[in-house]
Amino acid sequence: RNYYGGNWASFSFSGLLSWIKENQQKTDTSDDCEDWRKLILENEEVISLSKKDKTIQHVEDFCFGDQDSAEDVEEAGALPKLPIFGASGAEGVAQESEKECPPMESALPEAESQEPEKATGTKPASAMEGNDTEITSKNESCHSTALGESALELGKTEAAPSEISAQEPKKVTYSQIVREGRRFNIDLVSKLLYSRGLLIDLLIKSNVSRYAEFKNATRILAFREGKVEQVPCSRADVFNSRQLAMVEKRMLMKFLTFCLDYEQHPDEYQDYENSTFAQFLRTRKLTPSLQHFILHSIAMVSETDCSTLEGLQATKKFLQCLGRYGNTPFLFPLYGQGEIPQCFCRMCAVFGGIYCLRHSVQCLVVDKESGRCKAIVDHFGQRISANYFIVEDSYLSESICTNVCYRQISRAVLITDQSVLNTDSEQQVSILTVPPVDLGKAAVCVIELCSSTMTCMKDTYLVHLTCPSTKTAREDLEPVVQKLFNLNTEKETENEELEKPRVLWAVYFNMRDSSGVDKNLYDGLPSNVYVCSGPDSALGNDCAVKQAETIFQEMFPTEEFCPPPPNPEDIIYDEDEIAPEESGFSNSPETKPEPSTEESSSGGSTAVKKEDNEE
Fold this sequence. Notes:
This protein is an alpha+beta fold. Helix content is 23%, strand content 18%. It contains 15 helices and 21 strands. The strands form six sheets. Strands 3-20-16-19-18-17-9-10 form an eight-stranded mixed sheet, with helices on both faces. A hairpin with a 5-residue loop joins strand 12 and strand 13. The longest helix has 15 residues, at 246-260.
């Protein structure tokens, strides 16, 4: 691929249109080198890899505006694609302004004592390959780029009331979306980070957090009796809520307090261990609205398939994550979920790792005697030897996956003109669970992102819908889209439709969910070849983190997984490496990075700059 992250990537609007076209056509990749088989020795055999990505299916996109008017429109500020671009906010070349900002490595751990709006900083330009970049530490200013706007200070944005929320939404045309396409960062997979989840802990521990920024999810919503309403989840929210009676507030607080230490009171739930969580809630003297809030918006579990214990565990996890960085348990990475894999790539690159784009692999080379994989052959016809090989599931051919049964994820991405629930502030990051109409079907998770997340242009919202597939993505998700949004492009619409946000553009697609597949189900894979899955359908990222750590520990059982990187001033070099270091460079693969003359070492801070003319 020509972009980072595979199915975890995020795209500008034009990048997504290219991705859609590519997946609708599904053309075969031809071999660049026909004689690569000459590299295979007599005592070796090959495992051919798939030339076609079959993880994305049923891609359908719809424009609800005048598409003809955008035929000759180009993205503003479009530049020739650089190898590292093609996915994510790294595409934008923007104005810069200096702002005081806390570094993420300190902002994440210290944020528990901060107000929600102070839990995030400004976008470090290190995430913007191709521009001047600077990674800063305490009391230093950081250069920030915001896709053509001055640097965004999140604290101010969240606190500031909307200037136009009371007015009618501005009319946004398709040609405007195309022109402002670089302001969009559209994720293929929609997730949030639990504030006490495994990924946040890993980002802090490994110091990868220095390359990313996050915005709080500002509200939890529920869809009940045809209306969207806000769910009170913290103590302050519960007692400030106008939609709950005083008796309901006491009921809710009593139940949530019980969930926080339910293990200490087994007598209260033991009789219901074989029941569903929904059945257990009915025994707790909770009103129907409270049961709905807890089941769908706090525990966020299935009404029919979730046991009492699983529901209590999910509720406890939600409650434990409250208050660490804000009033909800969730964080969202600025510029999209696709920033996260790029952040790990940046840290890897600092210590000598190489990430090759547009570099396909023909086959794995296996030694017949030992049964171990020795090398790969790439599309240039060169052999690359290694001791361990990690392969994403989508690269494996059908002959290897004959025993594997995959699940599917239904996805939809919408660009809309207003929020599903308008309030005084238009800069909201919302999560909404829409319960299934028919029992046995999965609920639909809706995540709505505002422009201050740097994922969409001003006066629009980016809406992600996700659920486990039963049919095609459009068949699964369009009924929910019709409930929440106005799809009518004609001027004459009913009053009820006028109140709903208008969909400007939409895409539906199904994505393979290969998580949870046992390695033993893959036929004929050598023991030193490890398979990792694509994204799963869960809201959080725990599955990916556990999988990465498991594979790492199998390869290197005595090593620490993602250890904290050393400070440059703490790195000790051998004497024979001093000479190349004096020039600021070292070709030795053993050498750790040392601050160059442009790097500041005072107070333990480092500032790494790129040259203006460097790609």
